[in-house]
Amino acid sequence: MTDKLTVSVLGTGIMGAAMARNLARAGHTVRAWNRTRAKAEPLTADGAFVADTPAEAVQGADVVLTMLYDGPAALDVMREAAPALRSGAAWVQSTTAGIEAIADLAAFAREHDLVFYDAPVLGTRQPAEAGLLTVLAAGPAEGRGTVTPVFDAVGARTVWTGEDGGAGTATRLKLVANSWVLAVTNAATEVLALSKALDVDPQRFFEVIDGGPLDMGYLRAKTGLVLNDELTPAQFAVTTAAKDARLIVEAGERYGVRLDVAAASAERFERAAAQGHGDEDMAAAYFASFEEAAEERER
Fold this sequence. Notes:
Largest sheet: 6 strands, parallel
Number of helices: 13
């Protein structure tokens, strides 16, 4: 098969829009859809066709890529697309769907003769826009020639975890990785909150750990978003972080593991969202440390 494909991108939020744009720039024909059409419309400047419905978007697609909120959302949209799905097309499912949802998505793929690839990605807005995501992928080896050009367009590398997308091995790895990302994010924001409460200049903390094993580029990046009031546009939104944290907790419960930090992370993100920070970067979890989050903007 030629490496120039027709790719349908269903879901053009922070990640999906960047992925669609990089696919178009790589020379693929992109047919995009988003429930709020205005979020997809800018992709026309990159040569993408913006469809009114999921069914219209998947017409003639070699590959359907879903980047939606969660597993049930992905399944609902694919059901809307079902009448126009081409038998034998590849379905690259990049939504962080959670372990329980993967079985339902894989079953839908079998029912509609789609080649299913469980392919969540690691990265936020900046690496997505630069085409530098890490793709975690599971699916049949014989069809990888079709999906590899898609992965190459959106990511810097692909880590294969197995040949059965329905087994959820890629999703499991994504949840493990995200458990670390979310924990570090909340730890970073609590450092700032405690510094404020104790009247400690956070720069003194950074001086203490500078260049040592406790120093992290990610710590500097996330705290910088708070300190410099750069929480919008979000690299990764609070509401999405809360959803992923809940999926991590559910995965632990399913396999008999108590994940206290993940549970606390979920509550913290949910509290920040309830305070009005849901669309901001997940570093806005900082505000969850205070009863009156609005007042903290005047910190």
